[in-house]
Amino acid sequence: MEQSPITVAIERTVDPSMERYAQAWVQHGVALATLFPGFLGAGWVREEPGSVRWHMIYRFADRATLEAWERSVERAQWISAGASFARESRVERRTGIEGWFDAPEGVVLQDDARVEIRQSTPAPPVWKQMIVVWLAFFPMNVLVTFLLGLIPGFAELALPLRLLISTVILTPIMVGLILPFITRLAAPWLHPRSRPGS
Predict the structure, then answer these.
(1) Residue 58 pLDDT more than 90?
(2) Tens digit of pLDDT for each residue in 76-116?
(3) Can you tell me whether residue 59 is helix, strand or coil?
(4) pLDDT value for 122
(5) What is the rounded CA–CA span in Å between residue 180 and residue 185?
(6) Rounded to whole angstroms, how far apart are CA atoms 14 and 37?
(7) Who contacts 123 (Cβ-Cβ below 8 Å, separation ≥6)?
(8) How high is the pLDDT of residue 73?
(9) Residue ranges of the domains in the chain?
(10) At what angle do helices 19-33 and 73-82 cross, to 10 degrees?
(11) DSSP string spanning the chain?
(12) Which listed site, 27, 123, 140, 195, has its alpha carbon 20 to 30 Å from 40?
């Protein structure tokens, strides 16, 4: 099954006395990343003029291409060159099931080179995530189990083999269709907007 793109958001604290050098350093890092297969875009912004907090983002096509960049000698040398003035303080990865529950006001890449960072809505409580996953999984599990039971001889197969077949069928349907659909449907409940004054 094809893997989804992975977006990495990094917050760095930058020495303000090295601002111009830091800008060149960041641009050099983006230029290096563009040379790697699977690179989809990158960018950086400061929270406000004069802020020491810089937000940097890059996106790769899948985990393998991301790891090739993150483990590369080029990136290690680039990080080392900025170690004296740019300190990494927070890293977020958007991938797998976490991405299904991201609020729409999250991090957005634009035009392969610029980045827009809006205020992120916190992930919904775990109990809400569990309910949404269960609402997606239960009816599909019932349906697939019923349909497979109509196949002559299927019920006589060993339990592990029956489970293997059903999960091989269910997993791509759940990941590719059902979970994205139901999380969009449940978005107002997962991410309720705060009332004014609250």
Answers:
(1) no
(2) 999 999 888 888 877 777 654 555 555 444 444 344 333 44
(3) strand
(4) 58
(5) 9
(6) 29
(7) 98, 101, 102, 103, 129
(8) 93
(9) 6-117, 126-190
(10) 170
(11) -PPPPEEEEEEEEE-GGGHHHHHHHHHHHHHHHTTSTTEEEEEEEESSTT-SEEEEEEEESSHHHHHHHHT-HHHHHHHHHHTTTEEEEEEEEE-HHHHHT--TTSEEEETTTEEEE-PPPPPPPHHHHHHHHHHHHHHHHHHHHHHHHTSTTGGGS-HHHHHHHHHHHHHHHIIIIIHHHHHHHTHHHHSPPPPTT-
(12) 123
Look up tokens 């019920």; give the residue. Answer: 155
Among candidates 6, 125, 105, which has minimal Cα distance to 60?
6
- The CATH number of the domain covering residues in 6-117: 3.30.70.100
Structure tokens given for 57: 């983002």
Put simply, whether the predicted model's pTM sits higher than 0.70 gets the answer: no
Phi, psi of 40 (to 5 degrees): -115, -15
The amino acid sitting at 195 is R
